[in-house]
Amino acid sequence: MTRVWLCRRSRCRVRSNAVTSIGSGQALLPADKYPGDYAHLVPGELQLSTAAQHETWMRRALALADRAANEGEVPVGAVLVRGGQLLGEGWNQVIGAADPTCHAEIVALRDAARVEHNYRLPGTTLYVTLEPCTMCAGAMIHARVEHLVFGAREPRAGVVCSTCALLDEDHYNHRVQWTEGVLADQSAQRLQDFFQARR
User: Fold this and answer.
1) Cα(176)–Cα(128) distance, rounded to whole angstroms?
2) CB-CB contact of 107 with 68 (8 Å)
3) Considering Cα of 49, then 180, then 59, then 64, what sign does the dihedral take?
4) Catalytic member of 55, 105, 131, 154
């Protein structure tokens, strides 16, 4: 079961994949463990891809995050999907490419845009292991990505729900739906291991 969370504090619609697998009934981020984060949310319903589909694509993104780590990059991976088919994929390459815009999400969007011969990518879902930054969220809006699914939160630079709610702003010409918490522990562990190894 996938849930949508309706925010009482504003007009935003905060989406969250609420179970680890179909029918398990176990919250990824239980309200009793994180009362401050979820006390203002009430459950609603939204027809999204199944939890199993989310996990399948997120596992591919995690494999790309591993590739980034092997190349000495921060382990973040992303895949862009439409109708169950892979359109583009990417992993962090900012160091190797000497390009500050080569975040996993941007690389995946560029990959898909080349395939589609169009920068607009409607009807797509972007899976990324870490909550996107301002640059990547802006690129998703411009590309008309329909749905974002991410793993771990990024408390310092994430703009979906950690530092702000950029994707829920009303004044943009496109609204990206979003789901958080898919295989979040696995994503967070990769990041923790990567940075601990460099201390």
Assistant:
1) 14
2) no
3) positive
4) 105
On whether the CB atoms of residues 76 and 63 are closer than 8 A, the answer is no
Closest residue by Cα to residue 82 from 62, 57, 107? 57
| Residue of 2, 13, 89 whose CA lies nearest to 54 | 2
% of residues, the chain, pLDDT over 70: 75
Interval 146-180: pLDDT, tens: 999 999 999 999 999 999 999 999 999 999 999 99
The C-alpha torsion from 189 through 92 and 148 to 142, rounded to 10°, is 160
Q: Is 105 tagged catalytic?
A: yes
What H or E segment, with its residue span, contains residue 53? Answer: helix 51-70
Sketch out the chain's domains with CATH numbers: 50-197 (3.40.140.10)
Rg (CA), the chain: 16
pTM score, whole prediction: 0.76
Q: Residue 187: CB partners within 8 Å, gap ≥ 6?
A: 62, 65, 129, 130, 151, 152
Residue where the block lists tokens 């939890």: 51
